[in-house]
Design goal:
alpha/beta, 8-stranded parallel sheet, 8 strands, binds zinc ion
Length: 340
């Protein structure tokens, strides 16, 4: 698919570095919940797979490769994707643990950013976050709220929120249905509104809710109304729209959030993860078209598709300067370069 580079720095704020499947540590909640037992977990996995094929077909995406590439190969591939699509920054929100992900971002901090994604209920969670940011070079925190049984406003998580505010890092919190079809649809923290007391208590934390709230549009809009530090990310196939009682499109979501929350709090992400698909260009092109159809101003597009992300990562202005430097030095893999 041909791609014409955009006239502003493009940032993908939501990517997953594919990781080897491993059993979660004891006491750490996981997407596949152990309480059902192995045999029933297999049944749930099949339910999920039955949904996977049709949605990939609908988007004309190839099946994911079954082998996980070594880290150096994963790094090379993502660098090539960044060069090919002129992406100023790729933000990995998970990657098989903070240690593994920090190895990746430290190889190329100009191209990559990564988020800590350890279990937030761990007594060491705040200390682990401090280490992840100050020593391992990670730039934010990712949480899957539906996996947590304790309310987000519980005192259990208070040290973590305090640390995130002190570090002034963005915190990306998934709410709503989780995983592909056959995934999680309920839980203490399923609604974005479950974080309102936290957003109010820690106004210094920019919270980002991905996938336009993943089925909880009204709740996310009300959360954004109540708390100006809440942002929304546009990432993924947004297939939850098919399971929404009203007829809505991604363009409708852009319109609604643009009118209410405004362009300064909408952040593009793709939710890309596996190869051979790589960067899910189709989501970018579809979302750009939606925004053009809504006659958004160029400066608003620049915010949504890059500027807001760079602001939250405290890298505003950096990518343009670096790009200039790279071009001057004739770096072969420069982001202003030709398709790889
Ligand atoms: Zn994701």
């Amino acid at each position: 698919m041909d791609f014409k580079p955009l006239p502003f720095p493009l940032v993908d704020f939501h990517i997953h570095l594919v990781q080897p499947r491993k059993k979660p540590a004891k006491g750490v909640p996981a997407y596949r919940r152990p309480e059902y037992g192995e045999a029933k977990e297999q049944i749930h996995r099949r339910w999920s797979e039955d949904y996977d094929r049709p949605w990939r077909r609908a988007f004309n995406f190839p099946d994911p490769e079954t082998d996980i590439p070594p880290l150096d190969e994963a790094i090379r591939r993502w660098q090539a994707e960044a060069a090919r699509y002129n992406i100023a920054k790729l933000v990995f929100v998970t990657g098989g643990g903070n240690d593994r992900l920090s190895q990746v971002v430290q190889q190329d901090p100009a191209t990559f950013a990564g988020f800590a994604h350890h279990y937030p209920g761990d007594p060491k969670a705040a200390a682990d976050l401090e280490r992840a940011v100050r020593q391992q070079g990670l730039k934010g925190l990712k949480i899957f709220a539906p996996l947590l049984d304790e309310p987000l406003a519980s005192p259990l998580f208070r040290p973590l929120w305090e640390k995130a505010e002190e570090l002034q890092i963005p915190v990306l919190v998934h709410f709503g249905i989780l995983g592909g079809g056959g995934g999680i649809a309920s839980g203490t923290n399923i609604s974005p509104l479950s974080i309102e007391p936290v957003a109010k208590a820690y106004p210094g934390i920019p919270f980002v809710v991905p996938h336009f709230g993943c089925g909880y549009v009204r709740e996310l809009l009300q959360l954004c109304w109540s708390s100006a530090n809440v942002h929304v990310d546009t990432s993924g196939n947004n297939e939850w729209l098919r399971w929404y009682p009203e007829s809505l499109t991604v363009e409708d979501l852009f319109r609604k959030f643009y009118e209410t929350v405004g362009p300064g709090r909408i952040i593009f992400g793709s939710d890309s993860s596996y190869f051979p698909r790589g960067f899910a260009l189709r989501y970018l092109l579809d979302q750009l078209r939606d925004c053009y159809h809504l006659a958004m101003k160029d400066e608003d597009l620049a915010l949504i598709f890059g500027g807001n992300a760079l602001r939250l990562l405290k890298e505003e202005g950096r990518s343009e300067e670096e790009k200039g430097e790279g071009e001057k030095q004739g770096q072969g893999d420069g982001k202003g370069g030709e398709d790889a």
